[in-house]
Structures are given as structure tokens and as C-alpha cells.
Predict the structure.
Amino acid sequence: MSTAGNIEAKLAKNGQLIDLYINDVLKISYPEPLYKAARHLLDAGGKRLRPSFVLESSVLVGGEPRRTIPLAAAVELLHNFTLIHDDIMDNDDLRRSVPTVHRLFGVPIAIASGDLLFAKVYEALSDWVRQNNPTSGKMAFLLDCLNSAAISICEGQVLDISFESSMEIKESDYYRMIEGKTAALFKASTEIGGAAGGADARETAALGQYGLSAGMAFQLFDDYLGATADEKVLGKPVGSDLREGKMTLIVVHALDHASSQEREKLVRALGNQHLSRTDITEIGELYISLGSLSYTLKRADEYVQKAKQCLKEFPDCEAKQNLLELVDFFVTRKY
Amino acid sequence: MSTAGNIEAKLAKNGQLIDLYINDVLKISYPEPLYKAARHLLDAGGKRLRPSFVLESSVLVGGEPRRTIPLAAAVELLHNFTLIHDDIMDNDDLRRSVPTVHRLFGVPIAIASGDLLFAKVYEALSDWVRQNNPTSGKMAFLLDCLNSAAISICEGQVLDISFESSMEIKESDYYRMIEGKTAALFKASTEIGGAAGGADARETAALGQYGLSAGMAFQLFDDYLGATADEKVLGKPVGSDLREGKMTLIVVHALDHASSQEREKLVRALGNQHLSRTDITEIGELYISLGSLSYTLKRADEYVQKAKQCLKEFPDCEAKQNLLELVDFFVTRKY
């Protein structure tokens, strides 16, 4: 396997192509605060993982990456729209090491700027349609990919919020929630890339399954980072997930395996805004002693293997190698 | 001219067709609170004016109304999505005589339910594409109509909010704001109906101009109702616009024509949450004495005439008669 550096360079290169397009489709216009708010998180960084899924999937089946850029940008716009709205719903202050949109521009403009990005998703799709003259069938398929992903994200986000007040979440509930909140958009990205690149129905389905499993692995590892990484890596304070009472697989596993005393301690910590550094460290030690962190990494790795299996039937090529490395990167990244 | 009863019966009949489709595309699903929130305002009423614009415009150019239903539903879904988010931004408690979505379900679910409706807009479009196999050009045009309207609404809403804190709004600023907030979606509705029904570019443009002017008349009369109608008609408390400091043409005109003493009184009242009934009545009397209400009605009527002019080149038929009556209804309605 090649080094992580390779795939990070590839991500950066793809990201530049996408950002050029996004800069064009999202020029600062009137009223300025609306457009500045919409650009805020996009300008603050991000790895542009989903656009790379679109581009590499497209190339894998013989598509031209240049022709797929508007669609790759569309999934990034969709992702950023959901970040803005999720941060309001979760009352988060920081993301990508900068203040969240609603903290900087207020809730009303933040809501409107998310809506603006959502509309720009379909503007990018319209651009692609004008450039590529697809059949109405392909058109409807691409629309459905974007719509289903957006709907899944809404459903997953509402589940995520509702799980915060419950200590009775089963592992299956958790998977359902992250499939909606996170994996659905990775699935849409690979399906869109495949369909745009000329994949047949079987190839598109395989790519979709790859994206879905990769997305599950991504979220599982994200939860792991949330419990173990430092502030600089997270772009937000250590222990945020814990303080918000976020239901992660780590928590589900820990609650399931804790003694009644340990369980009580964890229940008291979840959603407690006033946790100290020491409290957070103690809970981290509890996770380790219960095997909850290693269990989460194990499940993440299973999804990585599952994702890779989905690419088995595709001929070896650079794009396939990139997709294989991307999913490895998902569970080894430091940020 | 025929009686208002005719057009109201037509609206009700079109509305039933649309609601059947919306009920199907927006079935209560999991998680239930998300879907119940998304349905809340749709179930509470509404005149379904925009879908009737789509259907009648389509019929005017020879389209089959039955085939246009998904597009007519799409604009109603778009409208309702913006209502949910606008009510959060404006911190409104009541709409259509029921509590607003965020009052009933909380802000997080309200945001997500608006986003869900927005995704359903494009799901309805995808339905229509599958049923009608349009060319990619028509497809892109319809996408652009929906996207531009959504973007204009975001822009208009942000202007509306920003105008609340300013007493220096010019009449031209006001028109720009309501063109975005309200008229753009009426324009999109008639353009979409025209394009779906088979209109050529010139006919589509004329229909779009009709929709735009009709939408301006609608909003001007809405402002008039907001200053003069009672609670039962408004579906929200009397004086809401005044208490929120909403910038209407009535206010712009009054500020422009008031003596310095009257101006001071009005400035004190605007945005004052604690206005009494007497205060509101006094401001109403000021509007009358300054001619601000009649000026607003006059401008609304000018837009009505402008809208009707746009239909001049279309042959006389029932759909044309309906569109003419619709715009009359806009400025004579009691609710």
C-alpha cells in the first residue's frame, strides 16, 4: 500500500479543482452578509472528501473528471449546507477551528445561508445538465441521489438529536442514525460519480455500496477522534461530544458493558456542560478499560474491508487505487 | 368580470389535486416528529395560490393539468419550506391561526423539517421528469426556475430582516426586497407551468412577467391586510408587522410623508413588542391621514394592471380568464 501522503496530495489536487468551481458558483453577491455566511465554512477549510469520491468514481468507470466537477461541487455544497444547519441545531460554537456561522452571523442569516447553499447544489446540477445533455433517466437518477441524501441527512440529524436524551440506544439504532447523518452522502457521491462517468446499473450499485461502507467507517472513526484527539485536531474543544451527550458507538458500547457504578458515572457525564478536564480524562479511561474504543475501531475496520470488497470487480487502475487508499485514510487520518 | 366565488372554487379544486399528490410524496415516516413538523403548516391550510399559477399557466399554452401536478406541488413545497424557516428567523408564534412549527416542535426539528421540504421540492421535480421525459434543455430550465426562486427568497428574507433595524429604506429598496421574498416564486410558478405546458420562449417570458407583477401586487396587498385586517383574517395577532418593525410600503410612505412629530411617533412604535391596542390604532389612523394605505393599494393596483397586460397576446380561454381573476383576487381577498 502506498503512503498516506499520496492520497492527501490527490485530495488536495481534487480539492483545488472543486474550489475553483465553487468560488465561481458562489461569488459574493447582494446582500453580502448572506453570501459571506454561506462561504464562511467553505473558506475555513475541509478536506473535500466527498468531491473526491465523485471524481474518482467517475474516472473509475471511464468518465472525464473535468466534466464531473459541477457534480463533485454539488455534494460539497450539500455537505456544507448541512454543517451550517447542524451547528445551529447542536448549538456548537466552533467548527474547523473557526466560530460557527450562526455564532458569527446570527441564527437568521445562518439558516438562510444554509438554504442558499442547498439551492446552489441544484444550480451546480443544472450547470452539469447544460454541459452534458443527459437522458431524462440519468437526470432523474442524479436528482434522486441528491434528494435522497439530503432527506437521509435530515432524518439522521433528527435521530441524532433525539438520541441525546436517551440512554437506551441500541447498536442498530446507532448504525441507522449514522447511515442517515453521514454515510448516505458518501453513497450518493460514489453513485453520482459512477452514473455521470457512464457506469451501468450494477457498477453504480457497487460504487454506492462502497460509498456507504466507507461513510460508516468515516463516522465511526470520527467518533473515535472525538473521544481521543486534541483540540487542534478536532477544530473544537476536547470532550464536545461528551458534553453534548452525543450518542456514539463508544458510548453505546460503554453503557452496555459498564458496571452499574461505571454506568452511573457515564450517565452523569453525558450532556453535562460543566465537565472538567479531569472528568473527561476519567471517562476516556473508562472507555479504554471497557474496550469501547478498540471495539469502535474494530467495527470501523470491518466497514473498511466491506468497502474494499465492493471494488473487487473493477479493473485495477489509478482511480481504484485512490478509492482504496481513501477509505484507508478515513480510519488512519489524524484530523 | 366574474364573481370572486368562481375563482375561489377553482382554487379549491386545484388545491385538492395538489394536496393528494403532496400527501403521497410526504407520507409520515421515521422519525415521525420530522415528518409531522414538515406537514404541520401544509395541513393547517393555505390557499395553494402558487400551484394554481403553475396549473393555469400550463393549461393556457395547451398543457395537460394532470401531467403538471408534481411541478405545481413542488412550488407549494418550496413555499412551505420558506415559511417554516422564515417563522424561526422572525421569531413568529402564529401562522394560519396555528402555532408555528418551531413553537410546536422546537427550533432544531423546525430547521430540519424545512430542509426536508426543500429536498421534497426536487423529489417532485424528479417524479415529473420520470413521467414526462423532457429534453435536457427543458430540464435545466425547470431546475433554474426553482433554484433562482429559492435563492431570491433567501436574499429577500435577509433584506427583510436587515431592513427592520433601518429607518432609511427607500421605496426602491422595498420593491427589491419583496421581489425576492415573494414575487420571485410567483414568477417561477408561471414560468414552470408555461415551460411544462409547451410554451415557447416568448410565451414563457410573458408568463414570467405576469407572475412577477402578480406577486408584487400580492405582497403589497398582504402588507395592507397586515395593517388593517383583524386577527381571524390574519391568522396572527393584529399589529404583528408593526411590533416586529417590518418594513412595508405603508411604513416607507408614512416615514417619507410624516411631520417630524409623527415620524418620531412611528419610529418609536416600529419594533416595539409592547405596543397596546390603542397604540396600534393610533398608528393606523396616522397611516390613513398620511395616505399611506391608499398609496399602497394604488401601487398594488398598478401591478395588477401590469400583470394583466402580460396576458394580452394569449388567446381568450378559461385558463386566461382564471389567471386574470386570480390577480384580481390577490387585491380583493379578505384573507
Notes: The beta strands of chain B are 94-95, 98-99.
